[in-house]
Amino acid sequence: MIPIRSASTAQQVHDWLYGCVLRGDLLPGMRLSETEIAEQVGLSRQPVREAFIRLASDGLAEIRPQRGTYISRISVRAVLSARMIREAVESDLARIVARTRPDLGAMERELDLQARADAESNVPAFVEADDRFHQAMAEAAGHPAVWQDLDRLKAQMNRLRHLSMRVFDRNQTIAQHRAVLTALQAGDPDAAEAAIRTHLRQMLTEVPHMMDAHPDYFTE
After folding, report:
1. Mind telling me which residue stretches traverse the membrane in this protein (predicted)?
2. Which of 29, 54, 126, 202 has the greatest CB tally within 10 Å of its CB?
3. Pick the residue with more confidence: 66 or 217?
4. Exposure pattern of 80-95 as b/e (b: 16+ CB <10 Å)?
5. Are residues 99 and 189 in contact, defined by beta-carbon separation less than 8 angstroms?
6. Considering only CA atoms, which of 193, 195, 190, 178 is closest in space to residue 104?
7. 74 near 156, Cβ under 8 Å?
8. Is 118 part of any domain?
C-alpha cells in the first residue's frame, strides 16, 4: 500500500482504500488492519474504522465480528447485472451520439491514452482511460448524469476489469473502442449500437475465464 500523506478524514481513507480494491492492490480475502492502516496514513484508528464501515456498505469489504475486516470477493451477479444495464443504456447513448454527431474529440483522446497505457503495460491507466471513453460518450449524448449513475453500479465490474486486463489482449478492447468511435463519427446509429453491444459483451467471455483462474476471488 501507498501511505496517504495528506489524509485528514474518514472519507479520504475510504476513497484511497476504494481505489486500492478496484485496482486489485487489495485482493479478495485480504485482511485489513486498522492499526497498520492508521499508521500508514498518519491518523487515529477511529477514521480508519469509519472508512472500513463505508467500504463494507459499498460491498467491497466484510466486517466479521471478533475476527476483523476482510476484502470481499467479487460478486459475479453484480458484475453481470452492471454489464446488462450498461449495454442497455449505452446502446441508447450511442444511437443519440450517432444521430446528433457532436464533437468527439474527448473520445479520440481517451482512445489515444488507452493505446499509450497498453504500450506501457499500465493496466490502471488503461482501465481509467476506458472508463473516461465511455463517460465522454455519455457527455457527448448530453447525458452526463447517466454516467454518474452507471459509475455507482459498476464497482464489482471494475474490479474484474483490472484483473482481466492483465491477461486478456488489451488491443482487442482498443479495436472495439475504435469501431464504436468510427460508427459514431460516420453518423450510423445501427453500427454504433452494434459496436457498443459487441464491446460490452466481451465481459461475458472474461468472467468464466477469470473465475477458473481465480476461484477464490469470486462469489455468486
Report:
1. none
2. 126
3. 217
4. eebbeebbebbbebbb
5. yes
6. 178
7. yes
8. yes
Cα–Cα distance list, 105 to 15, 82, 197 (Å): 30, 27, 22
Decide: 107 and 137 in contact? Cβ < 8 Å. Answer: yes
Going from the C-alpha of 45 to that of each of 16, 168, 188, the distances in angstroms are 15, 39, 55
Distance between CA atoms of residues 16 and 77, nearest Å: 25
Percent of residues, the chain, with pLDDT higher than 90: 87
Residue 189 amino acid letter: P
Given a cut of 70, is residue 8 above it in pLDDT? no
> Residue with C-alpha cell 452494434?
194
Question: In the prediction, which pLDDT does 6 show?
Answer: 47
Q: CA 85, CA 50: separation in Å to the nearest integer?
A: 31
Tell me whether residue 164 is in a domain. Answer: yes
Structurally, the chain folds into a number of domains equal to: 2
Q: State the cell numbers at 129.
A: 482511460
Give the residue ranges of DSSP H helices in the chain: 10-23, 34-41, 45-57, 76-100, 105-119, 123-140, 144-153, 155-164, 170-186, 189-200, 203-213
Q: Are residues 93 and 186 in the same domain?
A: yes
The per-residue pLDDT for range 38-51, each reduced to its tens digit, is 998 888 899 999 99
Domain that holds residue 115: 75-219
What confidence tens digit (pLDDT) does each residue in 137-178 have? 999 999 999 999 998 899 999 999 999 999 999 999 999 999
Tell whether 63 and 153 lie within a shared domain. no
